[in-house]
Amino acid sequence: MSNILVDLNLQHLPDTSFTGSWRVETRALNRAPAADPLAQATQVHLQADGLRVDAPDAPLHGA
Fold it and tell me: 21 falls in which pLDDT band (50, 70, 90)?
């Protein structure tokens, strides 16, 4: 499988374009502490009513 780089201006896309589950493949420019759930995220679930981040220790919910 080849690696593909896509450069998009995400500000021009509607929020609904990102609804769904996303797998965290790599982390770039992460400034969160290593123990922070966002730094350890394996999945990000974006819904109209909030956000869920799955990390190895426990899921994190937010609205």
Answer: very high
Report field, pTM of the whole predicted structure over 0.70: no
Domain encompassing residue 61: 19-24+34-63
Please list, in sequence order, all residues whose beta carbon lies within 8 angstroms of the beta carbon of residue 57, skipping any fewer than 6 positions away.
37, 40
The number of distinct structural domains making up the chain is: 1
2 within some domain: no
The dihedral over CA atoms of 2, 22, 8, 33, expressed in degrees to the nearest 10, equals -100
Name the residue with higher pLDDT: 1 or 14: 14
